[in-house]
Amino acid sequence: MYHPPVRTLGGLCTTLVAIAWLSMGLAAQRPAAPAPPPLPQLVHTCPMHPDVVEARPGTCPLCKMNLVGARLDASWMCPVHAVVIEPASGSCRLCGRALVPVTVSLAWTCRGDVNAEHLEPGLCQDGSPRITKRTLRPHGNHNPQHGGQFFMAPDNWHHLEGTYPRPGQFRLHLYDDYARALDAPKLQAITGRLVTEERYDPATRTTTEVRSAALRLSRDGTTLEAAPAHKSWPVRATLKIVLKKGEPEHRFDFTFPAPTVDPLASKTATGTTRGSQTSRRPAVPPAPGATASTPAIAVPDAAPGPADASASPTSPTPSTIPEILEALRARHAEIGLLVQKGDFAAVWVPAFQAKDLALALEVHLGHLLAAQRATAEPALFRLVQGAWRLDAVGDGGNREEIETAYRAFGDALTDLAAGFGDR
Amino acid sequence: MTRGRSILALCTATLTLWGPPPGTLAHKPITSPFTFYEDVLPITRAKCGQCHAPDGIAPMSLLTPESAVPWGESMKLELVAGHMPPWGSLAPADRFVARPRLTARELNVLLTWAAGGTPAGDPAKTGGDEPPLARWSMGPPDAVMPLAETSLPPETAASTRDLVLPLDYNGRQLVAVDLLPGTASVVRSARVSMGARPEDAGDDRVLALWVPGDAPARLPAGSGWTIPSNSNLRVRVSYRKRWDREREPATDRSQVGLYFAATPGPREAGALRLRAGRPNIPTSDRVTGQIVSSAAVRVVAIYPEPALAGSTVHVETVAGDGTRTSLAVFSARAGWERRYWLVEPLDLAAGNRLEVTARWPGPTAAVAEGTPLLGVDVLPR
Description:
By secondary structure, chain A is of the alpha+beta class.
């Protein structure tokens, strides 16, 4: 089945990478007199469909409107004061919190005519230099804003953040594609429940919900809330939600190792803006006798040190087959730990590292015997495909899909190692 | 090009290092070091262009950046899901004649390009040749049988036509049969079989299962399908218009190509037909069928019947002492029924059993008892 043509944000990523690299490269080679920073590449985007980003002028493949020029840039925004968007990382000039990465469109304007936007810097009519204007792009901010777990809904418009600030209290923050919080009327149209215990019958392949709590609009109308029965930490819960009447129910699997802490409510402002439960997790040991939604995956014993993707190694690609296979196993274990603790959005990092490692094995296929190659070659393909699949399902927050992709990835790795004679 | 790739690879690594802890990012800091003309087009020409061409059966061409770029996201979804190329998984892979597949590196190139900005690159630096849309992949046939012209009016988007032709080659032995579409953009699949006049029953010998991009194979030397007197060639052609031409009238006049043995061989090709057993419950997620071979035979190919569409199929042989041996595991896709040829024929002793088990992802309506599930092409030993 084919899907209607929709452009991705890949062009945007290209631009960001180029900007990041160029800015660093230029910084390293900067002459005594500072040169003006290079402009981000000019791209063309649809006024109605900002996801459409083309390299050349033309019309939107979705609505046929003429595309307009834009320069996309990586910037840093205060999680509390959205007006504070800076070109580099640092602290908010208003509250001191650490800035979070976002994507903006870059334009230049003049004091006397702020509605006029230019795609180049230059001089205003009064001779003063144009002022840089940074506007948040759709999907430009995928950071949790309240210290919770952040997912993107399959409609690519709704974004969700679940928090669990105290035992028995679940809060769901919903945003649009600009990470703007939905208002109460929009929240009221959303129905769902938080399932904290369910049973799966393999014989009938059906799942029965044992314990759940309905979502309700919070008293202040800013979030949806549920009051699940709390057993122990970590809390693993599945949000089942209908975002629009008549549309299918979506599921998002949350894992809260400990109470989430909202950086916006925190009095201390330093170093807490990332705020996700991942970075703030205290050392809470997993409780025995987990609920029915306990991850069904087995994490290999050979897990490397920290599972946080930020700790992923950046060492050179190993060159020998045993070294590559060992590194692949380490990445596999790292993915497993991320999946186990519910940090799905970070899975793509070790998955793509594994993909690149696996591709380094391709040159060795020619040295294998025919029978070995018959095993290793398709396994290599499946492993690369599996890495991309993990990347694809990671944002969605559906544990079942992610665990299925993880198992397929592990099976491919097992077969790959067998093909290379390393069991 | 190498330098460009190095720079972009460095960009990726740089952004990873320069950026925030990756755990906070949902969108990926990846970009494509691969361009359409230099990296993607040689792959699509070799592996996709037989269908994904301007006048091919596929919904879009992958031979120009203008036609491919808007489908970048679809390409990613189809490739990641394993839907394309359409041959699906088949295990053990080394037991069957392989169809052209993507390598791991080719898959990565296509996905990286589709997800990373779909850059066009330099047309002067492309490689590979555009494949012909339709051709006799085994060379000119010994005999060509044109089918009657089929018209598809504007209001008909899809249709199946059964065409019957007298097969006036008594005693000749067929070793392969192929189909050449007249209008490649509408011919979706074809099943060519041979039966006795005037009524063709279910025991027709299936001579060819044609799907776009597939290639027929010859029966092993010394074997063939002998054409009895008063035989018919039955051709069931499935037509489907492309989405962008659905409201346009179309006509087709395909041809069937016959390849004869130079000298008839001693081994007559036959088929074992595995049919669905009695269902236990009205709905189930699986169906099984089996047949006991009454003679010692040599299995040369297998082909799924349409009833298996959407299932994972496991074919086993069961020896007299109950020993089970897996023959094949594959996913059966609707509309993509084709023959899987064994690289080396598999001997089956008299009294051995062939079993097929098809399993769907969830409960489905039970397949009626006696429904054909699997064909197994065999030769006498």
